[in-house]
Amino acid sequence: MVATFVIFLREGIEASMIVSILLAYLDRIGQRQHFRDVLVGVAAALVLATAGGVAAYLTIRAYAGSRVQTIFETCTFVVAAVVLTYMTFWMRSHARSVGSELRTRAEAAVGRGERLGLGLLAFQAVGREGLETAVFTLAIVFATGTRGVLAGGALGLLVALVMAFAIYRLGRKINLGAFFAWIGGILMVFAAGLVADTVENLQQLGWVHLGDHPLWDTAHWLTEASSLGDVFHSLFGYAQQPTPLQLGAYLAYLATALGAFVLLDRRSRRRV
Fold first, then answer.
1. Model confidence over 42-51: pLDDT tens digits?
2. Which site in 27, 35, 83, 258 is 20 to 30 Å from 221, CA atoms measured?
3. Is the dihedral of CA 72, 74, 80, 86 positive or negative?
4. Domain segments of the chain: what residues?
């Protein structure tokens, strides 16, 4: 539940920012009649992302407990970790230019009189966030099960919408740069867990034999099947029987990603 809450909160804030920037620009230039085009694009993106995620889940569920499911889960972990890392660093680097880029593209679409162009712009921007969320949610479901996933996602989305309303309607000042920095750091920890899960699956498939003997077993202290163990596993990558390679991959990714993220954050502050 915690992992999906963080994911939906982060993606919900970013998607809300995108939609708000587009609507605010159209309102400023007196083109409120195009609100409908933007909202249609948003709705289409959400439907596509939801349908794609549900279809993928239902398809792979038919292979529950099989080698095919493990292979699919492994691919999902890899894609989720890569995309999660990329989009976190990308957002941190381009946070200040996202608004101007969107307004430029919206201005070009309005100038050409292309209602379809505005809809596609909203579809592309929000669709990216929706597909990322679908991939991350699938990775969470495969890693920890379905318990609390929908509740966490719904709560995260609700909080994101409330924050977006506060930022763009009530005029409250929220430091989005600091928000994305903190959330980005948390997501790097979550991505490290996905890397460890990838190694675990590769060893279970017999594709990797290096360092595949468990270092210890803490199931009698905290099992992954418990509520607390589920939280620690989904958010911090906790494993009750970690192998040397699994632990090494986790620590190596975490040190590299967080180190690079902190360095990027410091550089961006110096430029301000």
1. 899 989 988 9
2. 258
3. negative
4. 2-271
